[in-house]
Amino acid sequence: QMVVKTFMDMDQDSEDEKQQYLPLALHLASEFFLRNPNKDVRLLVACCLADIFRIYAPEAPYTSHDKLKDIFLFITRQLKGLEDTKSPQFNRYFYLLENLAWVKSYNICFELEDCNEIFIQLFRTLFSVINNSHNQKVQMHMLDLMSSIIMEGDGVTQELLDSILINLIPAHKNLNKQAFDLAKVLLKRTVQTIEPCIANFFNQVLVLGKSSVSDLSEHVFDLIQELFAIDPHLLLSVMPQLEFKLKSNDGEERLAVVRLLAKLFGSKDSDLATQNRPLWQCFLGRFNDIHVPVRLESVKFASHCLMNHPDLAKDLTEYLKVRSHDPEEAIRHDVIVTIITAGKRDLSLVNDQLLGFVRERTLDKRWRVRKEAMMGLAQLYKKYCLHAEAGKDAAEKVSWIKDKLLHIYYQNSIDDKLLVEKIFAQYLVPHNLETERMKCLYYLYASLDPNAVKALNEMWKCQNMLRSHVRELLDLHKQPTSEANSAAMFGKLMTIASKYPGKAQDFVKKFNQVLGDDEKLRSQLELLISPTCSCKQADVCVREIARKLANPKQPTNPFLEMVKFLLERIAPVHIDSEAISALVKLMNKSIEGTADDEEEGVSPDTAIRAGLELLKVLSFTHPTSFHSAETYESLLQCLRMEDDKVAEAAIQIFRNTGHKIETDLPQIRS
Question: Superkingdom of this entry's organism (predicted)?
Fold first, then answer.
């Protein structure tokens, strides 16, 4: 301890003392001290040696190369003590580090033939001891020590580079965050010097295929990603090598490079696409790759890219157009997911062309693709038109969706028809809107094109037909069993089954069996299809029936799904007497000029005509729901209007729905 204090207090100028203590300095480097079993003695000796290098600089008192190597490996081993900041000796370990960094003592090693061995030991030691209990100063001294070795040497060997890069690999990064940060700052600080060494490493592995040059060869893509995030300049010469790799003959290899570049081009702050146009163009070419997984990966990338780099949408549109006609179903499907995901994030990210691709795919030959396209458009419609989440212009941009989706009802496939019904009930006029539901329907009907109106009318007609089939089936259950009855029942079941996709026949037969055995179930179903059932009651009925048929042991039950489907189609989801009354009131407001017609984008005339047209259609499918004094009072107002078209529609509605006026409502009759 006395010796430590003596050397600590000595300056470079104290020539006499330097002369006097030279033998002591040489003595301290003897085996006895360097191999001493006592940890504290070794630490004190290391502190003395560090001071000796400081005092005698620039000429160290040790001339033998082997001795110097021994001393530096010995000092490096002592630095392991930095790990424990709570140790009583920590301040001495810190003094040792500070002294070495300040004097750049390790630079003496450049004269040694195997200096690399010392540097690798040093780097590994520092990266292994740094932890989150160290303060800024410890990290700063470590950086000074390592960066002076990198910047003042003749280049960095592969092994030394590995000792830095290994800390960037995901497995290591998660184990020691501080080592990762240290490596990051070190690379940033030495970028000019270390870039050629990094380029050489990647050149060996990527271009020449020599994976034996380093243990990190298998992690090259992870490393490129990390280095790019630290500082793109570290990869100046590596990017052209990646372009070469993108053209590799091996599909798997191209896939790996595409995955990597997707992350580099797509990440939020990356301006690689503008900085390196040739690489970007070459990457876009992979959208047309012969290998399916590569095309899939490219399409998946487009989604992030649209969200993070709207400026690149123009480049991507052309390539997504071709992919939306890809022979592979999965790729066409993913193109839709890509566009819709970006559109749901922000509609301005997808141009009309991209939405057009989704529109086209609603007529795809494969059901999975059609379904994705239809559901995607429905979600955009609900978000931007119904909830107007992005203002008037956005709503205008996707207002065509409602017509397009209803037109699909003209397709031959039952799957499509059923999906349109589902979309209508969940997205176009969501049944959970409660009070606003009829207003939504009223203005939707007024703004649809003629073909969409026809499709919607057809939809209600089909549901009404189905209701009457089920009603007739229930009537057959009330009659005594006979051969004729069974035959009639079988015919009915086949008719009902033909309205559903897949194995509907077996399910319908099974449901019919259950109906025959369970009287309570029959009465629930009777209630559901009775003309007076309200939407709220229907909701309860559907839940009750589903609960009865549910099997807790079978979480996914295709039979139950099928029955639910049947019930949803015949249940009054939107229309009951309350709904009709609300529609009529809305129409009266339009007649009086107190409605929000202009706000909803339709003229009062259009609203009144469409409203009456709508009521006329519903008077065929839901006549009983009209039967209330209030509704009829409002319709009488329409008869008093100048417009013949309006009056004519009102008479038609009275004709369809008024068979009980005579007996029940003398006031209206008169």
Answer: Eukaryota
